[in-house]
Amino acid sequence: MISNGTIDALLNRRSIRAFAPDPIDADTVETLETVAQHAASSQYLNDWSAIRVKDQALKDRMAEIGRQPYIATAPLLYVFVADEHRNALIADAKGVPTDPDAYGLAASYRFTQAQNDAVLALHAMETAAYSLGLGCVILGSLLNDVPGLIDALHLPQYTYPVLGLAIGKPAQDPAVKPRMPRDLQFFDDAYPTDDEATAAIRERITEFDATVHQYYDLRHADRPVDAFSDQIAKLAAQQMDDAHKVLPLAAAQGFRLDR
Predict the structure, then answer these.
(1) Per-residue pLDDT tens for 74-114?
(2) Cα distances (angstroms) measured from residue 24 to each of 62, 75, 88, 168
(3) Spatial CA neighbour of 59 closest among 140, 137, 166, 154
């Protein structure tokens, strides 16, 4: 493989959940935030924002929502948000109706694109942080209580939380988690669905199970962890609870995902 600083940072990314207490200096914060702003944006809508969570009581609330105490210890903590509120202000100033039934940027396609843009910005920030020797963890756990998160951050109509990102100087050095063999995720021209290809995929997943099992055995020798395929099967058998159903939660924020 070709190697350079960017590739090395990406290949060695690990979720860091223990941080040194050192604050992140202003120059680094400016750099990370500017890098995030340079991520791709669909049709140049700039339809994402990020809440920088600084107040310790609010960090504690984020940890409570995410059910992960380490969130409260992050020197730098962001919640990335799909944001069509700012664009609604622009539209309103131009005389364009912005009620949910008329506002075109509240529709499902734009909601999806705004989420994509937020994720792209977060990933750019995360990569930049790793390149500077910092550690990060992406916080999907903050979506455990979307209404609570919206309330805590005072998110207005036409905004929706996407992911959190905790950043700091690492206070741990976990192993890099194994990835699937490339041929299980990259296909030529079409998705392979014939019987031979399906059998090959299943065989390769069995091999991957052994790799992941070894990783978890070394990391959690005191408690067994299910094989990769068992983890997938367990999640596949679960029914989504009301707290994670996006349609009603997004509707409460003014988005119309039925159109």
Answers:
(1) 999 999 999 999 999 999 999 999 999 999 999 999 999 99
(2) 19, 6, 33, 7
(3) 166
Distance CA 166, CA 171 (A): 13
The whole-angstrom separation of Cα 178 and Cα 213 is: 10
Whether the CA torsion 159, 161, 166, 167 is positive or negative: it is negative
* DSSP run (H or E) holding 139: strand 135-139
Backbone angles phi, psi at 93, to 5 degrees: -65, -25
The domains found in the chain, sorted by start residue, are 5-175+246-252 (3.40.109.10), 182-225 (no CATH)
Phi, psi of 174 (to 5 degrees): -70, 160
- pLDDT at position 57 is 98
